[in-house]
Design a protein that fits this description.
Blueprint (H helix, E strand, L loop, with lengths): L49 H11 L4
Amino acid sequence: TGVAVIEGIWWHRFQRGGRGVNVLTSDRVSDLGGGPALHSNLVEIERVGPEDGQRAAESTAPDR
């Protein structure tokens, strides 16, 4: 058991597969004052080796 945190939100074009974390969030409004609908997500996290993590970081880093 643990918590996953996304510290930054990059545009979809910078994400692997062309979709970022915002695809998990509905754009509907809540019935409580018309504010944003809040949510939580269940995720599965898998440990990777240092080499795998470095390759993943390099392949998903946005070009600036």
